[in-house]
Every structure is written in C-alpha cells, then in structure tokens.
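Complex record, two chains
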Amino acid sequence: MYRTHDCGALRIENVNQNVTLAGWVQKNRNKGFIVWVDLRDRYGITQLVFDEERTPKVVFEKAQQLGREFVIQIHGTVIERESKNPNMNTGAVEVLVNELNILNPAKTPPFTIEDQTDGGEELRMQYRYLDIRRNPVKQNLLFRSKVSMAVRNYLTDAGFIDVETPYLIKSTPEGARDFVVPSRMNEGQFYALPQSPQTFKQLLMVGGLDKYFQIVKCFRDEDLRADRQPEFTQIDCEMTFVEQEDILTQFEGLTRHLLKEINGIEVGDFPRMSYDEAMKTYGNDKPDIRFGMTFTELNDSAQGKGFGVFDNQELVVGIAVPGAASYSRKEIDALIDWVKRPQIGAKGLVYVKCNADGTFKSSVDKFFGPDDLKVWAEKAGAQAGDLLLILSGEAHSTRTQLSALRMELAERMDLRDPKVFAPLWITDFPLLEWDEDTQRYHAMHHPFTAPKPEDLEKLATDPAAVKANAYDLVLNGNEIGGGSIRIHDQKLQAQMFDLLGFTKEEAQAQFGFLMDAFQYGAPPHGGIAFGLDRLVAILGGEETIRDFIAFPKNNSGRDVMIDAPAYLAQEQLEELNLKTLPKKEA
Amino acid sequence: MYRTHDCGALRIENVNQNVTLAGWVQKNRNKGFIVWVDLRDRYGITQLVFDEERTPKVVFEKAQQLGREFVIQIHGTVIERESKNPNMNTGAVEVLVNELNILNPAKTPPFTIEDQTDGGEELRMQYRYLDIRRNPVKQNLLFRSKVSMAVRNYLTDAGFIDVETPYLIKSTPEGARDFVVPSRMNEGQFYALPQSPQTFKQLLMVGGLDKYFQIVKCFRDEDLRADRQPEFTQIDCEMTFVEQEDILTQFEGLTRHLLKEINGIEVGDFPRMSYDEAMKTYGNDKPDIRFGMTFTELNDSAQGKGFGVFDNQELVVGIAVPGAASYSRKEIDALIDWVKRPQIGAKGLVYVKCNADGTFKSSVDKFFGPDDLKVWAEKAGAQAGDLLLILSGEAHSTRTQLSALRMELAERMDLRDPKVFAPLWITDFPLLEWDEDTQRYHAMHHPFTAPKPEDLEKLATDPAAVKANAYDLVLNGNEIGGGSIRIHDQKLQAQMFDLLGFTKEEAQAQFGFLMDAFQYGAPPHGGIAFGLDRLVAILGGEETIRDFIAFPKNNSGRDVMIDAPAYLAQEQLEELNLKTLPKKEA
C-alpha cells in the first residue's frame, strides 16, 4: 500500500489524521527553516510542509534536495493551513511530514510541467509521457475517456450491441490508400488494415444483429494534412429495418445526450438542410451556423451593367459583414489580398460600404449607382454600418472562396464561440461526383450508399442528378458524423459497381462476399460513423485533435517518441519473403 | 418506420392491436387453407397466421410462396393463440396478417439456420453472416458485448481511464513475431502492429494517469495452433503506486463482479498458489481445481526396491482416480496407450487398483508387495475403489504428462462442470527461463517484469533462482489473465536487457524511449491483461473461442468469407517500394 489518500483527497475534515501520500514533486519552495513541497498526482495537488522544528532532521534535510518531478512517498499528519487557498480542493490543509521516501529521482524535464509550458510541439511529442503530466493534456485524455463511456452507455441502453470486427482484412483499391500487412503464412499475399468496418457491419445486419456499434480504430495511408492522423477512431454504428428518419432520430438523440451529459447544454431539434441549400447558402457542406453572413446571389441585379468582372460569370454572390463598413481602406485591401492568396484563389473582391448615414461607397462606383447598391444591400439584408463583400466566377469555386472568407471573418470577429454548440443535419447529398482526372464517377459517400428510391430510374439515364439517402452531422462547422441508408439489393449493388467503373470480375473479386450475402435475405439497413477524435475535440471546445490523442503521429506519420516506423531486420524481411527496393531519387 | 414491434415483443396484452413487424422467415407451414409463418429477428420469433377466410386473397397467395430466410414486413392484428406455446415469450399470441411486403427474397441457405445446423465448420465460416443468424452464435456475440460492457463499467467506476494506444508502432524482435506494415511515406521502413500495448501503458503511468484500461486488439504472427487467432482482444490494465497485493485485490474484484453480474455466481476470496506449488501439485501452472486428483510424490517409498523404471528417475509421481479401480484391463491399456502417444510422450504408466475389499492389484506386483502399495495409496489419499496411476522420469516432463492425464480423466469423468467456476491466483513465477536452443535466458512474462526485491542480489549470481512479482489468474484450468509489477528503475531495466542478451546498443535502439522515461520520475507501477476472447468463452461455459468472435480466421490465418489475405495490385507494391520474392520451394 503506497498511499492512504490520493493528492486530491484531503479536506479540513481530515485534520489530525496520519496519512501516506505518493506522487510527483510539482514545486519545492525552500525558505531555509521551512520547506513547502507541492505533491501532484492525477487527482490534484497537496501541499507538504517540512519544518526545522517539527520535522525529523534527516527528513528535513532530504526534503531540501527534492527536485522537480521526483517521485516520493511521505507519511505525515494533516494540519490546517494558516493561509488557505480557496482555488484548490485541498487548499484548506497541508501535511506535516515526518517520513520521506524518494521512490525515484528525476532528471530535470526538458520542458516545464505547467499548464503553459515552454516546450515546443516536437519536444512535447518526443517526451509525450511528460507532456501527459501537464493538466491540459491530462484533462483532454480524461475527457475523451468520459465521452467514449457516455457514447457506450447511451448506445447500450438503446439496444446496440458492441461487436469487434477484424483488423486484418482485404485491400480494396477503391477510396483512399490502404495500409497493408504482409502475410507470412500466405506467401506473397497481404492483409489490409480497415479504412472502416463498413462491409463487416453490413454483414452483421445481414446476420440479424439489428443494432451494432463499435468504437474502433481505422487506418488511411494518405498524405497527411495538418490535423489528420494515419490511424483514427470511429464510433461506428449500423441499424436494420430503418429509414433515414430513424437513423437521424437515433443519432440526434446520441448527440443531444452527449451535449447534455458532457457539456451540460440542452439543445432542441437539430435543424436540417439539403446539400444543395448548404452549398447555396454557405458555400460549404459543413456550414458553421453559429453566425450569419449567409450568401446572397446577385446575378439578377449585378449583371448586364457593363461590369465585365460580373457580366460573364456563372455566379455573383455576396455576404453582409455586420458592422464592417468602418473598415479602413487598408483593412479592406488586406481582405482582398487574403482572398487572392493561392490557397483561396479568388481573382478579386468587390466591396460595398453601407455607411451609417445611408449612403454607399463601393469599389465599383464606376459601374453601379447608389440605387443598384441599395438593391444589393437590401437583398443581402445589409444594415447601415455593414460591409457587403462580393465574389464572382464559376459557381462552385466562387462559393468555396466566399465560404473561406466567411469563416475567416468569423474567426477574426470572434463569432465562433466554442461554448456555443450548433448541430445541423445535411441531407440529400448527390450519390455520385464526376472526377475529371479519371473521367469517371466516384461515390460521394461510398459505393454502398443507396440512391433515393424516387431517383432510381435516373441512375441509368442521368447519374449525376441522382440524390443519395446520405446524411452528415455537422457541429460548429465540422463534419462529426456521416452515413447513409445502404443498398441491400444485389442487382442494385452490381449496377452501382458498374457505374463506378468496376468490371464484373473486379466487383466479384473484391465484393463478391457482400453481393452473395445480399442474396440470402439481406434486410434494409443503414448507419452512421462519427469521428471520435474530432467529436471529442469539439465537445472540449477545441478544433485540433492532436492533444486529445494519447500518442499522436506527426505530419510524416512518425511517432517521434518511439521513433517509428523503423527499418526491419533482414531476417524479418526474408521470413516475409519481401524485398525493399532501393530508395527512389527525389 | 419498418416496424412497430420487434419479433420478441408481443404478449397477451397486445391482443387486438394493429402491428407492423419485419424479420426473416424461419419456417413456413402451409396447411392449404392456413399458413403459419415463424417470423424471426434478433429479439425472438413471432408466429404469423394467414388464413383463407380472414386474409386477403392476394396476401394469402403471396404467403404460400415465402421461402426460408425471406425478409418480409407485415401488417396485421394480434390475436390470442388457441394452443399457446409456454416456451416462447410470444407464445400466447399470433399475428393475423392482412398485408405482406417481401423486402428481399432469399436463396436457400447452404445450411440450416437452426441451433443444431447441418453446416460444417468451413461452410459456416464462409457464410458467417448466415451462421450469425443462428441462436448459439448470436447469443455468444450478445454475451460478449455484455461482458465487455460489464468490464468497462466496473473499471470506470473504479477510476480507471480508457486510453487508446497506437496500433502503428515499432517492431521488436523479442518475443513472438510481429505483423508489420510498410510505410509509404517513410521509404523502406515499417510499422509493427502491437502484440500488446505494454510499453505504452507503462508510459501512461510515467505520465501520471494512475489507472488505465483499454479493451484492445493485439496481433501475433505465430504458427496457429487450434483455437489461436492472429488477432485477439485483451483487457489491458495498469496501475500506479501499487504492490502486487493491490493488483490482485483490484482484479479479483473485477473477476468476482463478472461472475456475479454475468453468471449470477458469488465467489469468495480466490485461493492463491505459488508457481512451484502448482507445478508440484498439479504439474501445471494453470491447474483446474474444480476436482482433486492432486499429485503425490512417491520417490521415498517407491525407489530402491529394484524396479528400474522408478529407481533412477528424478521423480515418481501419482494420482488417485476416484472410483476407477473397477476399470477393465482394456480400459487401463487404453489409458497406457493414451499417455504413450507422442503428444504426451510418457514411456508407460504404472497402476495400482485399490480394490473394494482392501486388497491391491498393480502392474508392478513383481516388485512391490501389498504393504508397499498400501503406503502409496495412503500417501495419495486413495480410498478403496480408487485407481492409482503413477508416472516416473525427469521431473518437469513427468509432471506435464501426468497433468495431461489428469485433465483427460477429468474430461472423461465429466468433472469439468462448465457451470462451476474455480478461480485461482498463481504467483511467484520464476523471472527467467533458460532456453536450450538459443543458450540464453528468456523472460518468463516479459522483459519489463520486476524481480522480487528480496531476490535482487541473485540477479547477478544465480538468475535462474530469481522469482518475479508476476501473477496469473486461472479460471477452470485456463489462464485468463496475467501480469506483473514492472521495473521502474532505469539501471535495473538495463541489467534485465543485458541478462536477456541485448547489447547496450540494441536495448537503446529498441527501448531507449522507455529507459529515458524511467529517468524522468517513473513511479512504481504494475498491471495485468486478460484475454477477452477466452474469458468470454469460459464465462459462457465453453472452451473454444471461435464462436465468440464475429469474424474469426481459420488455422492458416485466412478469413475464408472475404478471402483474405490476397495478392496486391502491382501498383500498390510499387507505391510501397516493395517486391515480393518468388515462391520458395517447399
């Protein structure tokens, strides 16, 4: 027994008790005749006091040597503090120490174990075990554990069964790149790590398990963008005998439960928006609806007046930025430069100041009179004092650019309050998207997504117009979940593979087992998957996932702490019957 | 909304309600003027009735066409059954159908979807999604989900935090073979899949998380014996500031909770036995203590009487088989043949019948008189009517042989009652075992296990005599968990690697991060891991794990349903900079 209490436990009621504590030295304040040590563990900090008069001499001397992060065990008596600290749970007491064991000394850590550390990202990752001692990281991991458990409890209570699907499965060239695993026992063959348990959960529905969930690692060998991880965690769910409405209801329930349980926030019915409407109104299929600045299309009133930048474009679209008419010329120029950056790619930005006195001042005064500008302002709902910002060009890319500008402005204006939660369902996604590079259709969700029944006929004649029974759950401008009603008919699934450019043989080789399964009594089914890493980060009020993952990888997919991946021993390669080829020249 | 009720829901109280059900056709009994259909889903079976008089003609005709495993939806009225079935939850009612939708027809399944199926193992695995529809498999998966959740609830309530450790880690040539994953972004380098999260959970303790658990997939590329899987699930736990006693108490609590919660069985304090005692008494470090036949060593009374088979052997050891004195010569010969099989490897078997009349009859009457035999019988606690079976030879292998015989007899005599649960802690394992092949020591548990403090000095002088702070939890003759107190001292860990034959450089390259971590304030810690697959099987009253895994692999590590592993496309290999070598000749 190393301790009678943890470091967050002692209260005024414990005064006069003899206690044993163990933990890390957070701080050591040596006043010569008295030494205070802050002893830390997962649960809190307890102040220890060693004093020249009351502490045995040998103990007092040892206490003076204690460095930061030493691991110690002490015996002592709980006493009332003279000056209490109301900000600490244990702030009413301290422990007068009479015995001190150094369990393990510590070298000086390479960065401070404080909420605000002096350690940079790379150093923190290399010594992640020290980083985890810091409150913000530790609290994030505790928070994640709490969220996972809340998800499990909710789904278990709702009759979902937790089934583990396999990690060693088969590679499918469709979609993102797989991580693969050479099989020693099956020479020359490889397993793949799952990008998701999609087909397995569908087979569980064919198997009659009715409601399935799993919190499961998934793997994608992609070139890593910031805040992407090669391994990530999914809350994976599937239900049988359901329509889209049943799934939305069930998982709106889960999300509402989490917001209540974890954040103490009550949210009403989630709004719903079609994909088309989201694109038209926000230029984005995961709009942040915590603030306005919705899009207003101005083609009717802005074209045909001789302004070439507008006239021959597919779309003229603007947003009204509240209170921004006061922006200086310099500030507006900076916005123009911002949208022209290659990451955004706009050619320019038209502005209209809706002055407080009711007049207008725009960058296109040569082409448009006050009456024109007034019409625009009215259409966009711009008030006196607002700033109208307008882009034009090809519809999709212009919307994407204006969406980026809208989000940037919201960031600058602090409109993205992490304490406010605005969930939103996006529905009616297109089933397919045309890929110019490969000159063929890709599945917008995945090849197992069912078309809307009323669009079935268009599948042969006008595939691009077919909508899917697919939906995303968006929270504060982030997609936190997505799913669909699945195809459960063998012929329709075959038609879908055909549309996606699979030959019959390819479809059979890769997904024959699924199409077989559909012939033995496959029920209607559908599901959803949530990205746990992001969900947890957003519920925790942050948007970067890395500090909600215990041991994340860096942008090259490396774990810098254990230094992985690494070269294999030659015998290992030989056993696997593999040869690595010489390095390609860059 | 596909249904108002599931197929296990309707009771006498629902009579006269209009209901909608969906499910699979379990059975179709067509009497000409009336058709009964058993409709099945995860929750139960409801009897549907279609009758010539009361059912619309078109519906009645469709009902006659329904084949096994068709997926249908019906609307109808709940009516009271004339002849009730008390063995079914829904046995008091049936549904008189007025509307029938065939949601998906089904080909005749390749085996019957019944508790006792006509499908062989291979066929069941190929169509696992159909196999899962069968009650025994479905119930096992539901049972597993229930056990997992009970584990999570218990550990969460006890303050354990669920932390996900990475799956893409680094290969370590120590221990079993790793599955490896080529890294595309780090050319020529590989990740490895974890055999266990051992070092990560230790780093979480160094990181101050105090109590960790995870239900996690682990991977071992071993030649598969029966009932081993290349991927398996572990309940992985670690605690800080603990001694062995703390861990035994905590996880005895977990196991007791599961036996209570899952099996409704109350178990008292678990007995404990040292490794040495277990080997001496049961010839086995995972003894089944649900029955007796403990070992009696007979060297003193059996040697030196001129019987060469005993005289020059390290060990003469026997068991008393209750009530087996009545075995015929033929039965005893069969036992002798059984122990001589190469899998067991004994040279012979000596028997002594302790007859009901107090006389003895043995296979060694030439060498030993009734007085000798009586002494043996008394030592072994054999009663009149029992059969004494004796082996001799080198101590370890003789014990192993006699243990196998003891287990075989228990099976034949039905002494291994799956409804009785006898947990047992085995402690005081040797730290190291000498490996003749490699002529060096191997870690009996793993290289991170701490020696008993009182044996520390022997580490340099007599490593084989050092005991470890390691323990196994045994349930009904199966190891269900094992763990140890870990080394947390950098120097001791380095000494351990040295003993295990690592050079300083190898130790640094593979485990430098851990030894670094030990220098920054590593606390005393220890843990345990349970094999979930086996634990669930045993709690479920079975010993084979395969039907408690949704999608198991066969003995060649193949998933015969999806046909994995498989060959990769050439482009995939090229992207990974890999070449598979031509097949080796057998």
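Note: Chain A touches chain B through 128 residues (CB under 8 Å).
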